[in-house]
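User: Here's a chain of 205 residues. Predict its fold as tokens.
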Amino acid sequence: MMCEHVRVALSARLDGEDPPAPAAEIDAHLSICASCQEWQARAEDLSTALRAVPAPAPDLTATVLAAVAADERRRAEPAGRRQVLRVTVAVLAAAQLVSALSILFGAEAGFGAHATREMACFDVALAVGFALAAYRPERARALVPVALVLALCLALTSAVDVAGARTAVVHEIGHLAALVQAAALWALGRHNGAPLTPVSAGGRG
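Assistant: Prediction complete.
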């Protein structure tokens, strides 16, 4: 047999096919042909290497895209809550500012109500601080202690004055706004994450 024919037969044998020549003739040629023996050895090594190549990886595109979409939804939910808190803080700041300015420049100011004007100035400063927290949520945490102390002090003094009959409950209801402000500011500080588009004190982005 010629080497070419033997090698075709050997290739078929490696592929699991029936060789085009009797096995006895192929083996007889291999026993005396060093060149075909070397060719068979290389062919067997190549066949083994090809079988060792791992199977193609499964297409995970759909799974990955679904996971990314779910992650974006999870991120959007707290971002939406934080935006609501920002608007809430901004609206409370605007309401407090309007109330303080009406006292500061209102009729009471003309009668020398010095203490009242001082409190109005304090309220203006607080309103500006709350508006800043709504505009830059990353600064909300720094204002939380001030808001909490103010709310607790107002609640305590109101309770003492009402209990001592020095004021009526209806006159102290307005202090609930301080409690609402403190709670909103605390919640905004907890939900603070990546910066969002600033909103104005009137609650519009």
